[in-house]
Write a structure and sequence with these properties.
alpha+beta; Alpha-Beta Plaits; 2 domains; 6 helices; globular
């Protein structure tokens, strides 16, 4: 049975020149999150994507009650209250948050293999959500069968409305480049794209991240 998880993904855009300071602050809070009830977490630095330089903090929870408890403990923590003004001084806008629910998750024992992650957001045409989800599930399972750390998430709250996120983890840029080359000549991947086109309101939006820190 697939493990059900919820993830809160928070995106931070640094003021120009403040990226290293923001990264250090996010790593500091990530390590404190476990004490407040987050199952595990990571900090990702965006290498390529429409937001330019950005960091995404990801925190995992077994259910929404666990997230609610986490928020209460975090907000009551004097260290967190002191941390927020420091963060505010190095970001260019208020952070944006998304709440997503897992559909397919990879083997948790292989988390440390992910050094990079390609995340593609897919927004369905109105009424085509179930069909799009079915195609994405089939594709994610096929990628796992090929040995990739693939996961699929459904967005519950966020800027995209109903959306699905497909994440593939890689140990290096070379591994990512090799995968891209292999997909270009793979008939199964071409068939997957053909199925996707009539179900999406726009082309999938891809971002490439470097995992810069994670909890154990």
């Amino acid at each position: 049975m697939e493990e059900k998880l919820f993830a809160v993904q928070t995106t931070y855009i640094p003021i120009p020149g403040k990226g290293p300071e923001l990264r250090a602050l996010l790593e500091e809070r990530m390590n404190a999150s476990a004490a407040h009830g987050a199952q595990n977490g990571l900090v990702q630095s965006q290498l390529f994507g429409p937001d330019g330089t950005a960091f995404v903090g990801v925190q995992l929870f077994t259910d929404l009650a666990a997230y609610e408890g986490f928020v209460k403990k975090r907000n009551a923590d004097p260290a967190y209250q002191a941390w927020v003004p420091k963060r505010t001084q190095v970001i260019s806008a208020a952070p944006t948050q998304e709440l997503v629910e897992s559909i397919i998750t990879p083997d948790p024992s292989t988390r440390s293999r992910d050094k990079l992650a390609r995340v593609v957001t897919h927004v369905p045409i109105l009424g085509k959500g179930p069909e799009l989800r079915s195609v994405l599930e089939e594709h994610a399972k096929a990628r796992q069968a090929q040995g990739f750390r693939a996961s699929l998430w459904s967005q519950l709250f966020g800027p995209n409305g109903q959306a699905f996120g497909l994440r593939i983890g890689y140990p290096s840029l070379a591994a990512y480049e090799e995968d891209v080359a292999g997909r270009q000549s793979d008939p199964a991947y071409a068939e997957y794209l053909k199925k996707m086109y009539p179900l999406q309101s726009t082309a999938g939006r891809a971002k490439l991240f470097e995992v810069v820190a994670r909890t154990s």
